[in-house]
Design a protein that fits this description.
By secondary structure, the chain is of the alpha+beta class. 14% of the residues lie in helices and 30% in strands. The strands form 3 sheets. Strands 3, 6, 7, 8, 9, 10 and 11 form a 7-stranded antiparallel beta sheet that branches. Strands 1-2 form a two-stranded antiparallel sheet. The protein has a two-stranded antiparallel sheet with strand order 4-5.
């Protein structure tokens, strides 16, 4: 049977959620580690986002995926994009890109509530799939800068 992504799962608090964000999920937010900001090569001292910002990382559950947060869900939880940069992420930056771009490149998004996200746990999503150089480059091109890391200068 083909997985349509409409199955409901149960969170630890008993509430239910869909396995995948809807096609209309809109933008997702990706935290940017400061080392993912590199010289833009123009000689002007500018910086750019490195494609390595879109690689998989193992999380506390053992999943190897790229973590993002659904912007609309962050807003529903009463937050603004920059609000997800607290605690261990306070020195990081933040970019956003359309979830549809990830899907166009064959990536799959699945809800993955995480206690590590605190108040924004229900906005957390894992992005699975091959993040080849061309896929990473496309995500960089589609990204909008929200907050640049403290050491990322203009």
């Amino acid at each position: 049977m083909h997985d349509t992504g409409t199955a409901l799962h149960v969170r630890t608090d008993g509430s239910r959620y869909r396995a995948r964000p809807s096609r209309s999920a809109g933008a997702v937010l990706r935290r940017v580690y400061p080392r993912w900001i590199v010289d833009d090569g123009t000689g002007t001292g500018g910086t750019r986002l490195a494609s390595g910002a879109f690689q998989d990382i193992s999380d506390e559950t053992g999943a190897t995926a790229m973590s993002v947060l659904v912007l609309r869900k962050v807003s529903e939880l009463g937050g603004a994009p920059q609000d997800v940069l607290s605690g261990e992420w306070k020195e990081w930056g933040l970019v956003g890109f359309p979830a549809g771009v990830a899907r166009e490149k064959g990536l799959r998004l699945f809800w993955a509530p995480s206690q590590k996200e605190g108040h924004y746990s229900d906005a957390h999503v894992h992005v699975f799939g091959n993040k080849s150089g061309s896929v990473q480059k496309r995500l960089v091109e589609a990204s909008t800068r929200y907050v640049w890391p403290k050491n990322g200068t203009e």
